[in-house]
Amino acid sequence: MIQIPPEHPGLYSVNISPAMDKFISIVTVVVYFILGIICLIMASKSIFSKKYLPFHEAAADKQWDKIDERLQYVILTILKISGLGFLVVFLLLTVVPVFNYFNPDPVIEFLVPAIAFIFCLGLFLFNFQLYKKTNVRTPWGGSLMVMIIILVNIILSIIRPH
């Protein structure tokens, strides 16, 4: 039976037990935490890198030591800024869902994954574009997979009775 919960007008939920509701809540928090850890790994790779990533090198078709030193600084700066984006998404996905579990707020519940989804959408689009232009294997598939996982979590949040 589908019903509109009075706490969340416009959101639909299926009739599930309180135990299942709690289970789904915990699963979504754990999934966001795992995705956050992946973002932390990518943040550390980007922020602490001394050269561009292997797929960047393949796409540029130029070894790092063959690039002008000043251009290396520019590339490393852009890579570190990208790492900062991963770090922000890590914090967003690991800290906020835990707080929201104990103090539920429907805006936060959907805003956090929406922001992470937008970040991953950008990663997907830019990496896929790089793949299409250079025919070099880029991590666009990983970004797409994370987007699908985030969408599944959003759907689980929508159908929960809260």
Give me the secondary-structure topology.
Elements: E1 2-3, E2 13-14, H1 18-47, H2 54-60, H3 69-94, H4 96-102, H5 106-134, H6 140-159
Helix pairs in contact: 1-3, 1-6, 3-5, 5-6
Concise description?
With 162 residues, the protein is mainly α.
Structure explained in plain terms:
The protein has 162 residues and is an all-alpha fold. It has one domain. The protein is built from 6 helices and 2 strands. It has a two-stranded antiparallel sheet. The mean pLDDT is 90.
Shape: elongated
Domain count, please report it: 1
* Arithmetic mean of pLDDT: 90
Largest sheet: 2 strands, antiparallel
Report the uncertain regions.
Answer: none
Structural class estimated from helices and strands: mainly alpha
By DSSP (H or I, 4+ residues per run), the number of helices equals 6
How many β strands by DSSP?
Answer: 2
List the secondary-structure elements in sequence, H or E: EEHHHHHH
Termini distance? 15 Å
**How much is the radius of gyration in Å?**
19 Å
Strand order of the largest sheet: 1-2
Beta-strand fraction estimate: under 5%
Oligomer: single chain
Helix content: over 70%
Sum up the structure in keywords.
162 residues; mainly alpha; 73% helix; 6 helices; elongated; two-stranded antiparallel sheet
